[in-house]
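User: Quick sanity check before I run a bigger batch. Here is a single chain. Can you write out its predicted 3D structure?
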Amino acid sequence: AVVSTQSTGIQINLSMAAAVELDIKLKKASKTYSTGETLKGSLVINSKAEFSHSGLFLKLEGMVTMQLSSKSVGLFEAFYNSVKPIQLISINLEVSKSGKIQSGITTIPFEFPLTTKSARPLYDTYHGVFVSIQYLLKAELRRGYLSKPILKQLEFVMTAAKVPKAPEQPEIPFLITPESLENISHTRSVPKFRFSGKLDRAVCDIEKPLSGHIILEASAKPIKSIEIQLVRVETCGCAEGYAKDATEIQNVQIADGDIMRNVPVPIHMVFPKLFTCITTATNNFKIEFEVNVVIVLEDDHLITENFPIKLYRPE
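Assistant: Done. Predicted structure follows.
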């Protein structure tokens, strides 16, 4: 469709934007890269007719964005400066100068070195609640006066530098009884029970499942469910004060009903990509993880034992 404005007599081709498609293709199907690698790909333009443009541009951007929970807003004035976005990497590239693009499919290759000159490293990609770390490619095809640019955005995944030597991985044995529970004033009101078990590692390879076992030795009341809960603990702030919030990532039921006594129940949980990252601590934010063993009795009483864990990525 062609529209002519009465005041200027300029004709605007409204169908041209719909006839041009812009896409970003990466060579790696996984879209996952490590620090020091070269990100390679191509911009693909699909046009039904020849058209003029004012330049084709591509930007690589890595950012840490933070936000405060509702309970933390207004507590510290210094928070508002400390939770501003942090730029990790920013590279601008002019892929093509102004000119004409022929009809059909046009492919233009590009590449970016995934290195940074700043003191901050490139952290893991992470999609959290109060902290997020994202790496984006943003393409812009400028189409001249009175025409909106054509935009395309693509997220890719970064994995942080790997640890050359795996840290020590001590086991976490545990014994859960009424006497071991915290935040209970009177243990007399709590039914008698005894659970034992272990988590195989306190320091966990993020690319391998969390493992261990739990044994129900005794319980005065029937068991309804046993669950393993993965929790993110996100801290935003600065020297003047911090806002720390814990939220659930996932919950895995490992037992259903009143299970047999003295039989080990395996613990097995995969760390989900994007929603977990290696344990990270900086001056402005921290990303840490915990595991809760949650036992639900038949009368819906909850018994919870908390275990901080550390995630790393081996070389």
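Residues 15-19 form the longest helix (5 residues).

User: Great, the batch can go ahead then.
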